[in-house]
């Protein structure tokens, strides 16, 4: 569209811009003939008109041969058929992961259900409950891998590494040790079953070291919890932390589906604007009059700061307003440790 | 630590105490200790009962065959979402949420079967007679018959007929399979009469029929199918996360990437000048009056 009239618009003729904005070309990019065109590259699966093949195995032939979903998880995530003992162990873990009462995945599923949505939206939403606190399988697993890698470097025993880890992460929701399972034998039973089936390995052993270390330094009773038990066992079955995260979250999503159904069956829906938030829940700024727009210049305070000292004062003040985001300190990579 | 539930609900599904988690009356840990399978637990979750061995085998077959389907809308969603490198659960959630009206519409197929089986009962027709009514009513209305056809498996879904056969082999064929078979018979006959090409039963038509014959509701069956697929979508997302390039647009990859700029083909309104704010009102008035914009409204 080179015939379009050119005229100055806003700052788009500023010489600091990386190129001449008023002379930018219209039109899409030409087809890239220098490289092969895009295709769905996958190591996991393919299909044609008559077959679906996962990691080389035809899936219809797999199920006709008596393999099932649990076996398929090993095939998709690890490209191998599991030992019978491994299949039994994963089956065991998946039963325990199926339901957890009115916990966060069920809550999310039920909240979504109240808006009259598809069941699949509620099931998907339930998976979003799994983060780095609830169901922190990625964080837990990578923590184990880090320590096991350090062990290979030598110099420290597993017990020493476990103690260092606990001293650093005591109380962390991803530690796998807490006071959540002091009266419930389910977590300990998982390790016992893994031992019985002969599938327990380095991850379970190290997690037991972590439990022991935590029990030594904690000022209250703690023990292996479900995160630690299922996470370590899944890794001894060969699943990566991320695969574990996904598998357990998806397994719980079946339970969340039942909660969606029950919410629809037993409870009503919620309309836009229906729910009130009582004033007694509110602890923000007191009610105040909206100033006339004409008075804005008199009232408004600029947000800019012009020195690190000013910035610090403003930053600390902003932290006092919940919901502003200033009180959340996300960890970021620190390259200074490598330079 | 506060262990109160996020909200209060009366529930007939499960409860959890400091000592145990109980699903429909059964302690989950004891179920696992007794060597019940995950598929057994699914019957308890959705039906409150322990299944027969044959029913358990059918569900195992069904979930296994439905889990992986390579490149379908759900896997494409997972791969697209993970290109932005959010937490993995976001990609998995997106894949399951992809299941809607035309991708694995398990619930709708189930409701259709229930509706017409009920009509057969009320109207005193045989299942075969009612299956013909169903096919004619749907096709006369220009509606697709749910459970038939799959755009990729043009010669018939490789999972479908084997599922019917497995159901018969396990001797768990009931009213749903009889009715579904009759629907397929009349569907094929009508298309043949009309000179149309063969369209086979798909995995929803076959799998959902089996799930309903073993007692799952339409929504429970939909949940089983859709969530089972989530596992393979997680694998596809993970593969792209670990082996692929974030953003899926790099010019440095040997193959043109999914989101490379050259993949865009634009067919919208031609390029046009942005009016200034002084020109805006007059410009917008003329644009609205001309109505030309309406052909682009979506």
Number of helices of chain B: 12
The largest contact between protein chains, plus residue counts on each side, is: A-B, 103 and 107 residues
User: SSE order of chain A in H/E notation?
Assistant: EEEHHHHHHHEHHEHHHH
Q: Give the C-level CATH assignment of the domain at 53-249 in chain B.
A: Mainly Alpha
- Helical fraction of chain B equals 40-55%
* Regions with little confidence, pLDDT below 50 for 5+ residues of chain A: none
**What portion of residues of chain A belong to β-strands?**
under 5%
| Spatial shape of chain B | globular
CATH fold title of the domain at 53-249 in chain B: Cytochrome p450-Terp, domain 2
State the helical fraction of chain A: 40-55%
What structural class should be given to the helix and strand makeup of chain B?
mainly alpha
How many strands, which pairing sense, and closed or not: the largest β-sheet of chain A?
A: 3 strands, antiparallel
Distance between the termini of chain B: 50 Å
How would you state the average pLDDT of chain B, rounded?
95
Briefly summarize what is shown:
Chain A has 339 residues and is mainly alpha-helical.
Report on this model:
Chain A is mainly alpha-helical and 339 residues long. Among the domains of chain A are: 43-81, no CATH class; 83-269, no CATH class. Chain A is built from 13 helices and five strands. In chain A, the strands form two sheets. In chain A, strands 1-2-3 form a three-stranded antiparallel β-sheet. In chain A, strand 1 (45-47) and strand 2 form a beta hairpin. In chain A, helix 6 (137-153) runs antiparallel to helix 11 and helix 7 crosses helix 9. The longest helix of chain A has 26 residues, at 241-266. Chain A starts with 44 loop residues before the first strand and ends in a 21-residue tail after the last helix. Chain B has 298 residues and is an all-alpha fold. Chain B has a domain at 53-249: Orthogonal Bundle (Cytochrome p450-Terp, domain 2). Helix content of chain B is 55%, strand content 3%. Chain B has twelve helices and three strands, in the order E-E-E-H-H-H-H-H-H-H-H-H-H-H-H. Chain B has a three-stranded antiparallel β-sheet. In chain B, a hairpin with a 4-residue loop joins strand 1 and strand 2 (21-23). In chain B, helix 6 (106-123) packs across helix 7. The longest helix of chain B is centred in the C-terminal third of the chain and has 26 residues, at 218-243. In chain B, 45% of the residues are buried.
């Amino acid at each position: 569209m080179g015939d379009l009239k050119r005229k100055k618009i806003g700052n788009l003729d500023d010489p600091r811009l990386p190129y001449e904005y008023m002379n930018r070309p219209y039109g899409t990019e030409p087809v890239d003939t220098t490289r092969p065109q895009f295709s769905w590259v996958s190591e996991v699966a393919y299909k044609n008109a008559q077959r679906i093949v996962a990691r080389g195995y035809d899936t219809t032939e797999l199920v006709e041969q008596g393999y099932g979903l649990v076996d398929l998880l090993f095939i998709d995530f690890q490209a191998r058929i599991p030992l019978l003992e491994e299949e039994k162990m994963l089956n065991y873990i998946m039963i325990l992961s199926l339901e957890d009462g009115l916990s966060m995945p069920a809550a999310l599923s039920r909240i979504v259900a109240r808006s009259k949505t598809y069941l699949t939206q509620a099931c998907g939403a339930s998976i979003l409950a799994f983060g780095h606190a609830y169901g922190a399988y990625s964080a837990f697993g990578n923590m184990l891998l880090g320590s096991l890698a350090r062990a290979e470097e030598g110099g420290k025993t597993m017990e020493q590494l476990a103690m260092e880890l606990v001293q650093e992460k005591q109380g962390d929701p991803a530690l796998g040790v807490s006071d959540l399972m002091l009266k419930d034998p389910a977590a300990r039973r998982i390790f016992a079953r893994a031992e019985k089936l002969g599938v327990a390995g380095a991850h379970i052993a190290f997690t037991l070291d972590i439990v022991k270390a935590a029990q030594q330094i904690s000022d209250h009773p703690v023990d292996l919890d479900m995160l630690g038990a299922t996470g370590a066992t899944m890794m001894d079955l060969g699943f990566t932390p991320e695969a574990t995260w996904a598998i357990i979250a998806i397994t719980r999503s079946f339970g969340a589906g039942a909660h969606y159904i029950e919410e629809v069956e037993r409870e009503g829906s919620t309309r836009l604007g229906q729910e009130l938030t009582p004033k007694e829940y509110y602890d923000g700024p007191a009610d105040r009059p909206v100033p006339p727009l004409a008075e804005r210049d008199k009232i408004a305070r600029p947000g800019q700061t012009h020195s690190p000292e000013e910035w610090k004062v403003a930053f600390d003040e902003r932290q006092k307003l919940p919901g502003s985001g200033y009180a959340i300190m996300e960890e970021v990579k620190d390259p200074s440790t490598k330079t | 630590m506060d262990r109160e539930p996020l909200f209060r609900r009366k529930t007939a599904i499960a409860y959890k105490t400091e000592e145990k988690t109980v699903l429909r009356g059964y302690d989950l840990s004891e179920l696992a200790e007794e060597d019940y399978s995950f598929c057994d637990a699914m019957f308890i979750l959705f039906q409150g009962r322990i299944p027969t061995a044959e029913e358990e085998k059918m569900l195992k077959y069904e979930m296994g065959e439905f889990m992986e389907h390579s490149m379908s809308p759900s896997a494409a969603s997972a791969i697209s979402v993970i290109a932005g490198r959010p937490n993995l659960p976001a990609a998995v959630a997106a894949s399951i949420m992809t299941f809607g009206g035309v991708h694995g519409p398990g619930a709708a197929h189930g409701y259709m079967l229930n509706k017409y089986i009920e009509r057969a009962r009320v109207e005193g027709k045989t299942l075969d007679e009612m299956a013909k009514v169903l096919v004619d009513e749907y096709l006369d209305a220009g509606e697709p018959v749910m459970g038939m056809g799959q755009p990729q498996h043009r010669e018939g879904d490789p999972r479908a007929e084997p599922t019917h056969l497995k159901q018969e082999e396990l001797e768990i064929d009931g009213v749903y399979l009889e009715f579904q078979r009759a629907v397929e018979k009349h569907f094929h006959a009508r298309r043949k009469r009309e000179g149309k090409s063969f369209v086979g039963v798909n995995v929803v038509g076959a799998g959902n029929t089996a799930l309903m014959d073993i007692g799952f509701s339409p929504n429970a069956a939909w949940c089983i199918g859709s969530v089972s697929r989530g596992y393979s979508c997680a694998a596809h997302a993970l593969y792209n996360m670990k082996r692929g390039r974030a953003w899926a647009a790099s010019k440095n990859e040997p193959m043109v990437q999914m989101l490379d700029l050259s993949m865009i083909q634009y067919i919208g309104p031609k390029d046009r000048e942005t009016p200034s704010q002084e020109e805006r009102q007059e410009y917008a008035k003329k644009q609205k009056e001309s109505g030309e914009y309406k052909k682009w409204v979506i």
